[in-house]
Amino acid sequence: MHIPDSFIPIWQGAIYWIIVLVFITLALKWAKDEMNEEKLPLVAVLAAGIFALQSFNLPVSMGTSGHLVGGALAAIILGSPFAAVFILAMVLIVQGVLFGDGGITVMGANIINMGVIGGFVGFYTFKGLMGMTKSMPLSVFFAAWLACLIPALAASLELYLAGTFPLVEGMIAMGIYYAIIGVIEGIVTVGAIYLITTARPDLVDTGAKTATGA
Amino acid sequence: MIEELFQIERDAYRNSAIHRLDARVKIAITFAAIIALVAVPYSIMIYTVGAFFFAFFFLLWCCTRLSLVVYVKRLLSIVPLWGMIIFFQIFLKNKYYTDYHVVMSLPLGISIYAESIEFAFILLVKFVICISFIILLSSTTKMHDLLEGAARMGLPPEFALALGMMIRYLFVFGYMYRKINETLKTKCFDAFDRHLPYRYRLRQLGYTIGTMFIRSYEVGERVYTSMLCRGYGRESYLFVAKKPLKTYEWAFLLISLIFIVAVPVAVWLTAISLF
C-alpha cells in the first residue's frame, strides 16, 4: 500500500501534499490540545509499535503475505482520527526517509490513504457500530477491516489517476488482497485492543473501555 | 524492515566526508534529486537524466567508503514488491501512449507491447534512482541527526518531539522483535508452514503482536516517569541548538542543487541522449 516515488506524477503528488497538509495542521492542533505529558510517550510508543507491526509479514494465501496498517488501532486507542493522522504521518516519514518504503513526493498520498482515510474510516466505523451493536470486538473488527480495505482502494484509484495502473484490475487486485489482509488486521486489532483494555484500561479513552467493562 | 534498523544505524555511524556533512545538506540534496527525477515526464529522456543522476549518486556513494554490497542488499530488499508491479506494466496499456505495438501475444488474450516495455523501464529507472538517494541519505546520517536537521529546517516541534521518542522506541522494538523471532524459531514456529492450522498460526502471531504492545506500554510508562523526574512538562520540546552551515557545506549544497536542476533542463532543451 506504500506507493513509492515515480508512480505518481509530481503535480498530482503536490496536490496530495496540499490536501494532507490541512489534515496534518489539524492533527498538530489535536497534538497541542490533547497530547499531554501522559499521552506523549503513549503516542510515540504507538507509532513505534505500528512501525513494528507493519514489519510482521502475515501469511495471506498462495505464498503471498501482507502487513497490518494500524490506522484504526491508533484512532480507537487514542480516541481521535487525528491521532491516527499524527501517528501514521510519523510512521510514514520514518519509513519513507529511512527505509525507502513509500516515498517523498508521494508521502502526501500515502498519509491520506493510511492516516486520513484509515484513521477516519476506522474511528467513525468503530463509533457508529459501537452505538448500534454495543459490541466492542465486532465494532473494532469491522472498523479495522474497513480501515485496511478502503485505503487500499484509494491507493489503486490514485495509481489509476496517475496512469500507472488500470482502475478495474487495480481495484480487483488490491480489493481482494486487502480484504483478506483486512480480516487479519481486524482479528489482530481486536486482540490488541482487548489485551490493552484488559491489562491497562486507563490508557484507552474511547467507548471501548466501557464496553469491555460492561 | 525493522531487521534493517541496526545495520542502517551501524552504517550511519561510520566516518567519511559524506557522513560528516550536515544532515540538512543531505536532506536537501536527496529531496531535490527525488523531486527532479519525479518531475521528469514519463519519456525516454529519463534514461539520460537517470544516467547523470546515477553517476552523481555513485560518486557520492564512493565517497562514503561504504561497500557496494550494502547498497545492493538494501536495494534488493526494497525493489521486489514494486518491481513486480513495474513488471506487470509490460502487459498493460496506459494513458501516456496512444499507439501500441504488440511484441508478443500470449494465451488468454494477453499481449506484451513495445510501448509498455518502454514505460516499465522508465518507471524502473526513476524508482531505482529515487530509492538510491534514500539509501544514501539513511546510510550516511544518524537518525538523531536527521531529526535535528529536520527540526532546524522547520519540522513542527510537536512532530520533532514525538518523532525523537518514536525513534528511541524503534530500537527497543527492534530488540524485542529479534527476541520474539528467535523465540518463535526456537519453538520451530513458522507462520508460513502450511502443515500448521491457519487459526493456530494467526493466534500465535496475535499473541506476539499483543505482547509487543503491552511491553511497549510498560516501556512508555517507565520513560514517562523518568521524564517527569527530569523536569519534563507539557511545554517541553526537543532543544535544537542553532548551527549555521559551514562554507564548504554551502558550496557543496549549491553545486549539487545546480547540478540537479541543470541536468534535466539541459537534457530537455538540447534533447541530447546517451542511449
Strand % of chain B is under 5%
CATH architecture of chain A: Orthogonal Bundle
- Total helical segments of chain B: 10
The number of domains of chain A is: 1
Radius of gyration of chain A: 16 Å
Order of H and E elements of chain A: HHEEHHHHHH
Largest sheet of chain B: 2 strands, antiparallel
Strand segment tally of chain B: 2
Which pair of protein chains has the largest interface, and what are the residue counts? A-B, 67 and 77 residues
| Spatial separation of the terminal alpha carbons of chain B | 35 Å
Please report which band the strand proportion of chain A falls in: under 5%, 5-15%, 15-25%, 25-35%, 35-45% or over 45%.
Answer: under 5%
Number of domains of chain B: 2
**C-alpha end-to-end distance of chain A:** 37 Å
Can you tell me the residue ranges of chain B where pLDDT is under 50 for at least 5 consecutive residues? none
What can you tell me about this protein's structure?
The complex is a heterodimer of chains A (214) and B (275). Chain A has 214 residues and is mostly helical. Chain A has one domain: Arp2/3 complex 21 kDa subunit ARPC3, CATH 1.10.1760.20. Chain A is 75% helix and 2% strand. Chain A is built from 8 helices and 2 strands; from the N terminus they run H-H-E-E-H-H-H-H-H-H. Chain A has helices spanning 10-34, 39-53, 71-78, 81-99, 107-133, 136-162, 167-199, 207-213, and strands at 58-59, 65-66. In chain A, strands 1-2 form a two-stranded antiparallel sheet. In chain A, a hairpin with a 5-residue loop joins strand 1 (58-59) and strand 2. Chain A is globular. The termini of chain A are far apart. Mean pLDDT of chain A is 84; it is low at 208-214. With 275 residues, chain B is mostly helical. Chain B has 2 domains: 4-141 and 244-270, no CATH class; 157-229, no CATH class. Chain B is 71% helix and 3% strand. Chain B has 10 helices and 2 strands. In chain B, strands 1-2 form a two-stranded antiparallel ribbon. The interface between A and B is large, with 67 and 77 residues.
